């Protein structure tokens, strides 16, 4: 039996994502943090919406993803869920909500699922968070892994440069990916690693591998929606393709509005009661 929402739209499930990998259909994934954006992405046909902890950067203006709280992630997730009919919605577990001990990890994951209505959670890391992942999975919560550049560990890495170029780190990433599959994760995000390494992981694992800065040979792609829409001007990594220049479009619109107000061109009689 497939899960159906009241609208009768056939929703995306982990099962369907697995089928997409098996038949070679690439998975599309973007971030969203609010109702309006989620409505647009969902109606456009996106497969997976990630309520990323990148909300800490693009919504709240923090330098890193570390400050965002569990309550704030739940608020964003609730808004996204209200705008979604079809997409599978995954929510990032924020820094500090799962690394400490597995009971706290389970409590955090259950809060996300219960209070937002999300369909799964994403955690950063491999062997070091094995107990937390196991505990969350045992409660029936789908878990997406995240390896490579893991922004919650930025102060350990010291930079946002490409990860796993050295053999030892590449080997650890391969072992971690294997472990996440064995534990029962339904998919893994690989961030900013060499294309050949991502290819190797995607080919050797059965579960879908979603890349961001991990090249074309993976099972799907994810981008931060503000980056791909060109709302952020400054962030220009090599892996980012901009599909619009909303920064310019929005700035022009706001400047035109200001001018019309100052010039007494807005509102006209037709725009008044
Ligand atoms: O928080 C986020 O937006 C992410 C993506 C970069 C994968 O984790």
UniProtKB/TrEMBL annotation:
Pfam families: Pantoate_transf. Its EC number is 2.1.2.11. The active site is at 191 (proton acceptor). It is found in: Cytoplasm. It catalyses: (6R)-5,10-methylene-5,6,7,8-tetrahydrofolate + 3-methyl-2-oxobutanoate + H2O = 2-dehydropantoate + (6S)-5,6,7,8-tetrahydrofolate. The keyword Transmembrane helix does not apply. Binds 1 Mg(2+) ion per subunit. InterPro entries: Pantoate_hydroxy_MeTrfase, Pyrv/PenolPyrv_kinase-like_dom, Pyrv_kinase-like_dom_sf. Mg(2+) binds at residues 53, 92, 124. Pathway: Cofactor biosynthesis; (R)-pantothenate biosynthesis; (R)-pantoate from 3-methyl-2-oxobutanoate: step 1/2. CDD domains: KPHMT-like (cd06557). The keyword Protein biosynthesis does not apply. GO terms for molecular function: 3-methyl-2-oxobutanoate hydroxymethyltransferase activity. 3-methyl-2-oxobutanoate binds at residues 53-54, 92, 122. Keywords: Cytoplasm, Magnesium, Metal-binding, Pantothenate biosynthesis, Transferase. Its cofactor is Mg(2+). It comes from the Bacteria. Catalyzes the reversible reaction in which hydroxymethyl group from 5,10-methylenetetrahydrofolate is transferred onto alpha-ketoisovalerate to form ketopantoate. Homodecamer; pentamer of dimers. HAMAP family: PanB. Belongs to the PanB family. This is 3-methyl-2-oxobutanoate hydroxymethyltransferase. It comes from Pontibacter populi. The gene is panB.
């Amino acid at each position: 039996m497939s899960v159906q929402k009241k609208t009768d739209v056939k929703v995306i499930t982990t099962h369907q994502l697995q089928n997409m990998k098996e038949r070679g259909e690439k998975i599309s994934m973007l971030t969203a943090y609010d109702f309006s954006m989620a409505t647009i992405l969902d109606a456009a046909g996106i497969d997976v919406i990630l309520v990323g902890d990148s909300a800490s950067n693009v919504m709240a203006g923090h330098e890193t993803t570390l400050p965002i709280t569990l309550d704030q992630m739940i608020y964003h997730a609730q808004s996204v869920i209200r705008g979604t009919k079809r997409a599978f919605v995954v929510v990032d577990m924020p820094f500090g909500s799962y690394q400490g001990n597995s009971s706290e990890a389970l409590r955090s994951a259950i809060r996300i699922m219960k209070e937002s209505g999300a369909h799964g959670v994403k955690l950063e890391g491999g062997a070091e968070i094995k107990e937390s992942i196991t505990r969350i999975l045992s409660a029936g919560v789908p878990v997406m892994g995240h390896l490579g550049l893991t922004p919650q560990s930025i102060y350990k890495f010291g930079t946002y440069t490409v990860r796993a170029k050295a053999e030892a780190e590449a080997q650890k990433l391969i072992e971690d990916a294997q472990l996440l599959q064995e534990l029962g994760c339904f998919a893994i995000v690989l961030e900013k690693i060499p294309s050949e390494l991502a290819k190797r992981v995607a080919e050797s694992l059965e579960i879908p591998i979603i890349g961001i800065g991990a090249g074309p040979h993976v099972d799907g792609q994810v981008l931060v929606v503000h980056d791909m829409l060109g709302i952020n001007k400054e962030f220009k990594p090599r892996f980012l393709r901009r599909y619009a220049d909303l920064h310019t479009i929005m700035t022009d619109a706001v400047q035109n509005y200001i001018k019309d107000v100052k010039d007494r061109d807005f509102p006209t009689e037709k725009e008044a009661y």
